[in-house]
Specification:
Blueprint lengths: L1 H23 L6 H13 L3 E3 L4 E3 L5 E10 L8 E12 L1 H5 L4 E16 L19 H6 L10 E2 L2 E12 L4 E12 L8 E11 L2 E13 L5 E14 L7 E13 L4 E11 L2 E10 L6 E12 L9 H10 L18 E13 L2 E13 L2 E11 L2 E10 L6 E12 H9 L4 E14 L3 H7 L1 E14 L3 H12 L12 E14 L2 E10 L3 E10 L4 E10 L18 E8 L4 E5 L1 H30 L1
Parallel strand pairs: 5-6, 5-7, 15-16
Antiparallel strand pairs: 1-3, 2-3, 3-4, 4-5, 7-8, 8-9, 9-10, 10-11, 11-12, 12-13, 13-14, 14-15, 16-17, 17-18, 18-19, 19-20, 20-21, 21-22, 22-23, 23-24, 24-25, 25-26, 26-27, 27-28
């Protein structure tokens, strides 16, 4: 027992001697001028440490300081970029005996970070690694003392109770983030260290929770930062979020060179709910307008869960109340001038509700407010889509132009899936080029000028059986007034061709031609995209036996042009045959036949005289 007693006395005495040594001989405030000068030299900013540095001896030996601030550049909204209420640095014991400081753990509490960004490109990061003010020889000498700053090593950092304020002059708004924790493992310049964070942000329309972990390395010059194997998990909640909740997870690698003003980002994986992708991005932010080059590769994309679902009654109420006025405002495209972008994108497939497309490829550039899609291609419905387009957002009212070509597409399933319309079948080739201005939906219809052509082969027109209509009309002309249509309402054809123009919301088709083994259909018409009304005046003529969608011999209506009209709307077209004109044509034909017979008899009599 006496041995234990004396052992405790020895340890207590050593501890007291250590406290005396540290408090009377080793003054941590010797570091304050060195730290302030080093920050001034490196960044050009003012670092203020209002409280003295003091020793703590419980639960471990450490240094405490507080009321610390680092200024923002002059003229910024927030005077300070960084403010800390309190810092505790736990130090290693043995290096202290050699008058060297090795921080085993650094804890920051009550940190406030104000990050301001301006339209002219200035931000709170300016000068942090540019070298700041150059110190002269005298200041270099004065910065040297018995304890060198270069001997400072940090075993780890923990930051808690942090507020981050992001101010953007372009929007005039400040976003506030609550950083629950930020941890850094054993750290030294030029070596990778563990890094982790957890923060949340709550706004009226959305709540974001995010946490991540990976490794970070800071170059001894402080100008280069590398992050590897960084795994991030994000959760979004809010009424404006599809299905009111969304999870976004990613793994990334990043290299930042603040001296060269460049950043390179590699997305090893990106998961947005069921959507998976990978890609890379590089940014050069040294100029007034950053240059971004990116490439993304997606797997199967199903955007159906993200599409807005609106209750029909609710939609009608909004229309009745005139809530569509908000949609009548031109979109603000000024953000298109804030970055120059080159993007290559591909996707295995894209599903939107019932529509499925495959093998997407897109190449686009954005420069000086003009977006160019030089190539857009996809496979859909056994055919191919090729398109190019341009959107000019430099003026308050945007303008656009496009070229589009589809070939070999099965049009019936496409129309059924895209618009729930069962009107036309066949293999389709289609070309259109157009231009316009204004992105308000109704204005797009009014202001779009376009021209194109189409061809549908080996198809059918659904909703009407023209040969049957002619058979019914012929039967009624023959005296059978009880003749009624029967069979499927479908007209088969071998080809359907035409060209069209579009202006002021009207699509005009001057040369519609439909050919089948039984009939020919020719004429012209138009479709009003604003009212969705159809107005076609056509002529049909018989070239085979009407009975063959039923008969054998040459038809009595052979060669007779019969007026045929298409009216109604795009969703509900109506077909009609002009039976009065058919009767007149038949009567004329019979009259001509009787006249010819009478002439023959007269000629025979005259020839017999």
């Amino acid at each position: 027992m006496k041995f234990v007693k004396w052992l405790l006395i020895v340890f207590a005495s050593l501890f007291l001697l250590l406290i005396a040594y540290l408090t009377l001989i080793f003054d941590p405030n010797d570091f304050k001028p060195q730290i302030v000068e080093a920050v001034k030299k490196q960044t050009g900013r003012e670092l203020v440490i209002n409280q003295d540095l003091n020793w703590t001896f419980f639960p471990s030996i450490g240094i405490t300081l507080g009321d610390i601030s680092l200024s923002n550049p002059n003229g910024f909204k927030h005077d300070t970029m960084l403010k800390v209420d309190g810092i505790v640095a736990e130090v290693a014991l043995l290096p202290l005996l050699s008058k060297e400081v090795e921080i085993a753990q650094l804890n920051l509490d009550g940190l406030t970070l104000n990050f301001d960004s301006y339209k002219n490109g200035r931000s709170s990061m300016d000068g942090l690694t540019s070298g700041g003010e150059k110190a002269d020889k005298a200041s270099d000498e004065s910065a040297q003392g018995s304890v060198q700053l270069s001997s400072l090593n940090i075993g780890g950092i923990a930051i808690t109770n942090t507020q981050v304020n992001l101010y953007d002059e372009a929007t005039g708004k400040t976003q506030a983030l609550a950083l629950e924790s930020l941890t850094l493992g054993e750290f030294s310049l030029g070596q990778f260290a563990d890094l982790g964070y957890k923060f949340s942000m709550t706004q009226p329309e959305m709540k974001l929770a995010s946490e991540g972990k990976g490794q970070i390395k800071v170059d001894p010059s402080l100008a280069k930062i590398a992050i590897k194997d960084f795994e991030i998990e994000n959760s979004l909640e809010g009424d404006t979020i599809p299905n009111k909740r969304m999870n976004i997870n990613l793994t990334t690698q990043l290299e930042l060179d603040n001296k060269a003003k460049t950043m390179a980002l590699v997305l090893s994986s990106l998961n947005i709910e069921q959507i998976k992708a990978q890609g890379k991005l590089s940014v050069n932010y040294g100029a007034k307008v950053p240059d971004v080059v990116a490439s993304m590769s997606f797997g199967d994309i199903d955007v159906t869960p993200f599409m807005a679902k609106e209750d029909g009654a609710e939609g009608e109420d909004k229309a009745a109340k005139g809530d569509g006025a908000a949609a009548a405002k031109e979109p603000d495209l000024t953000g298109m001038k804030a970055v120059n972008l080159k993007l290559d994108l591909d996707a295995k497939s894209v599903i939107a509700d019932k529509i499925k497309t495959e093998n997407w490829l897109m190449k686009l550039t954005l420069k000086n407010g003009v977006l160019n899609v030089s190539e857009l291609s996809a496979d859909l419905y056994q055919g191919k889509l090729l398109a190019s387009a341009q959107l000019d957002g430099r003026k308050p009212v945007a303008s656009y132009r496009f070229n589009k070509k589809i070939s070999g597409i099965k049009v019936r399933p496409l129309l059924a899936d895209a618009a729930e319309v069962d009107m036309l079948a066949g293999t389709t080739n289609f070309e259109v080029a157009g231009s316009g201005f204004s992105l308000i939906p109704d204005n797009i219809k009014r202001n779009l000028n376009a021209k194109g052509q189409f061809e549908v082969a080996d198809g059918a027109l659904y909703g009407v059986n023209i040969p049957q209509m002619l058979r019914d009309a012929k039967a009624k002309l023959a005296g059978n007034l009880n003749a009624a249509s029967s069979g499927e309402k479908k007209t088969d054809f071998t080809s359907l061709t035409g060209s069209f123009t579009m202006a002021k919301g009207i699509v005009n088709n001057p040369d519609l031609n439909m050919a089948s083994p039984l009939i020919r259909l020719q004429g012209k018409g138009n479709v009003n995209l604003l009212s969705e009304a159809i107005d076609y005046a056509l002529k049909t003529s018989v070239v085979g036996s009407l009975e063959g969608q039923g008969g054998a011999e040459k038809d009595v209506l052979y060669g007779v042009d019969i007026p045929f009209a298409i009216g109604g709307s795009i969703s509900e077209p109506k077909f009609s045959l002009d039976t009065a004109a058919l009767f007149d044509a038949k009567l004329k034909k019979e009259t001509e036949k009787a006249t010819d017979e009478l002439k023959d008899k007269l000629f025979k009599k005259l020839g017999g005289l």
